[in-house]
Design brief:
The complex is a heterodimer of chains A (89) and B (775).
Chain A: E1 3-5, E2 19-21, H1 27-37, H2 42-45, E3 56-60, E4 63-64, E5 77-82
Chain B: E1 2-6, H1 35-39, E2 55-61, E3 67-73, H2 75-78, E4 83-88, E5 100-102, E6 107-109, H3 110-117, E7 122-123, E8 129-135, H4 138-145, E9 149-154, H5 161-164, E10 177-179, E11 185-189, E12 192-200, H6 203-209, E13 212-220, E14 232-237, E15 243-247, H7 252-263, E16 270-274, H8 289-300, E17 304-307, H9 310-316, E18 323-331, E19 337-349, H10 356-362, E20 372-380, H11 394-411, H12 416-423, H13 442-450, H14 453-456, E21 465-475, E22 482-488, E23 494-498, H15 506-518, E24 525-529, H16 546-573, E25 580-583, E26 586-589, E27 596-598, H17 599-604, E28 615-619, E29 627-637, E30 644-654, H18 661-681, E31 686-687, E32 690-691, E33 710-716, H19 737-749, H20 760-774
Parallel strand pairs in B: 1-33, 2-17, 15-16, 19-20, 23-24, 30-33
Antiparallel strand pairs in B: 2-8, 3-7, 3-9, 4-8, 5-6, 10-11, 12-20, 13-18, 14-15, 14-17, 18-19, 21-29, 22-23, 22-28, 25-26, 26-27, 29-30, 31-32
Helix pairs in contact in B: 10-11, 11-19, 12-13, 15-16, 18-19
Classes of the chains: A alpha+beta (89), B alpha+beta (775).
Chain lengths: 89, 775
Amino acid sequence: MPRLRVPSPMRPAVGGRQEVDVEGANVGEVLRHLAATYPQVRDRLLTPEGGLQPHLMIVVDGVEATGLFTPVRPDSEILIVPSIGGGCR
Amino acid sequence: MTTHAAVETAVETPAETTVTKTYRVIGTRPIRHDGMEKVTGKALFGADMRLPGMLYGAVLRSPHPHARIVSIDTSRALAHPEVRAVITGADFPDITRDEIADLGEGAIGLRYAAQLIMARDKVVFKGQPVAAVAATSRRHALEALALIDVVYEPLPVVEDAVEAMSPDAPLIHDDLYTEVPGGERSDKPSNVALHVQHERGDVARGFAEADVIVEREFRTQMVHQGYIEPQAALAVWEPDGRATVWCSTQGAFTVRKQLADQLQIPIGRITVIPTEIGGGFGGKIQVYLEPLALLLSRKSGRPVKMWMSRSEVFQATGPGAPAYIRLKMGAKRTGEITAAEHYLVYDAGGFPGSPVKSACVVGLSPYRIPNFKIDGFDVVTNKPRVQSYRAPGGTAAAFSVETVVDELAERIGMDPVEFRLKNAARSSDRMTNDLSLERIGFVEVLEAALNHPHYRAPLPEGQGRVGRGVAAGFWANGRGTSSVQLTFNPDGTVNLVEGSTDIGGSRVALAMIVAEELGLKPEDVKPMVVGTDSIGHTDTTGGSRVTYSTGTACWLAARDAIAQLKGRAALLLGVDADDVEFRDGVFYANSGEGRSIGIRDVIARLGETGGAIVARGVSHGLKLAPGFGAHIVDVRVDEETGKVDVLRYTAIQDAGKAIHPTYVEGQMQGGVAQGIGWALTEEYVFKDGVLQNPTLLDYRIPTAMDLPMIDTHIVEVPAADGPYGVRGVGEVPIVPPPAAVANAIYRAVGVRMQRLPMSPERVWRALQQAAAEEA
């Protein structure tokens, strides 16, 4: 099952965990499953339309995901990283 | 002295290249393709562009750093006989979307970008555009500005970011709420736009384990990138709704996107053509004049050209952010750093979007620190809205970290380079934001510093007190997407079509990659930077991404070309394509008694083997290729005046693989020169929100007279991805200089400088204070 590393500000919303194993064959599925298990993270990760929040970058096995359809392997490591450029609404 | 050392490490991807392999082209120093045009003055920059019948635009700017706009009356300007159009905020579409525009390096909220381009109902910094005019001459346009009547209601000014964080501070934006860690927003409006946080381990325990703890606070100043060419744009709005803009920009595609967003026009109707660029350093990504010129063109029905004066550049474009930083760090007597607390307040100027996020990564990531807490704040003030400036956020963050690291080393009695070596991040360590550093060469860089003749040399002698300082620096380096296309000429030469603005000699480096792969000479490959209609999406030239990412696209395009040319060679050799092998510019038939044909001949005969071919390469999804540097500097301090002279400077840096070493050295030297400006002389001086020194006479950029020859030493530890192991090199060298100079000043006269610039007055006052305390 892909392993997701949770950024420190988001850890309270996932029971304080630093890493969470989440099912999914691509980034979108993993994030949606995470949001289903931990509803508090949904709005932080996804827009109301289901897209990725623009201030976040998803990194799969060291490479920035190009979108929610980016495939993940069962042994993939997924990082949620606040994007360096964003956060200035 | 320039030296160059390769570390013998095999590169895994692309599989067949290693850094120790001998290349025909890579690592040589050919003359750049655009050299002749540049030195003869024939190259066309932004302000050189002209169209028949064009008008000249000028901008009316706010004289107040903070004011409500009560009314704007443009009737007298419109009555001027030579004026053809006037625009104000009322001519722009309403931008209500709460979206972030990613500029490729830096970002800004769309509705704030709209106000940065043209004020609506209030102004938040002196120099913010309030209206713009197009007239038949620049003189008439400037005359007409004086005929626009604006009534302002001045508001209280907040100039300092720390003061702006106070609940009692004047509120700059009624609709700005703090985005707190985790993505939620504060209940009340605030001047704090963002609070970013990173944590690892147990900080309290880490400090309890420390034998020595140092806690210091730092302030860095607002500085300008100092590009020589002011912003310039020429725009034409065609009657059928198509728009074309020529401008001096680091990214044609981001200009196109910003124009589409701000003017609400379909992006496919906009063409942006980048001109030659006279420097940018992060300051030419945000649009300023382009939307104004385009709107004036639409209103007047004529092309409109605009450019900024130097004082407009200083007051109304985006300088580098000032910062207030507190850092507490602990270490054991054996040399291990045990904990750190980093508190960073970055001043965004009039609208949110300082580089505090990258500062929170650049500062502590170079070291293995098991326990840390980082709190970063993006704060608005009544100053020009900042933009990226070479390693955005990094220089100030490193000033704090590298000064405290130096003091810790001294307190435990350890050599400062050895202390850094002991704590240096290694390959695959994680940055403060959890991203892997992949393969890095920080240890190799520090070892090179330790063994460098400069580090071992006796201090220079002469008048005044002398000292030697060291500091390290890091930048994660950009990746992004680049597109490249190759076409072929009947004389066997190749056209390299790409979309990366050439700021630091990237044309020649990219041509060298294509030449290396195709077995050609660099001069056989003709690089050209084209507009948005002529190449696939290419991200901004910024973040030290071009040689890495666009270089990868070139490498892929060359491979595509070889695959296609192999089929043509097979026809000419009379064998199957599978029987053809390509080596060093020659196609060999494996069967067929050693027959072969050179690539130039295959290219020249494309017409008889099936017609033209086009080869393409697109890079995306590359791994990080971070860069590290270490600097050694000797300074002399005049104790009577506080003046600091830089006597000797050596910059050591991991380039992965130096494609064209001259331009790697140039980047290193340029970064150091700018960093010394930060360290000693450059500073925006404000009084009540009004910039007091908006000219190059009063804003003191170092000249050749102020700098010694900057020695360079290139280390080559190949990156984990991309061709030849290349890494970006542009950002890293501006990161260490202020800390290196501060550490050298300390070694010379025993005072720790914690505020930039370390001007004669500040150094003198620090010396007086130290003497008074000692007495």
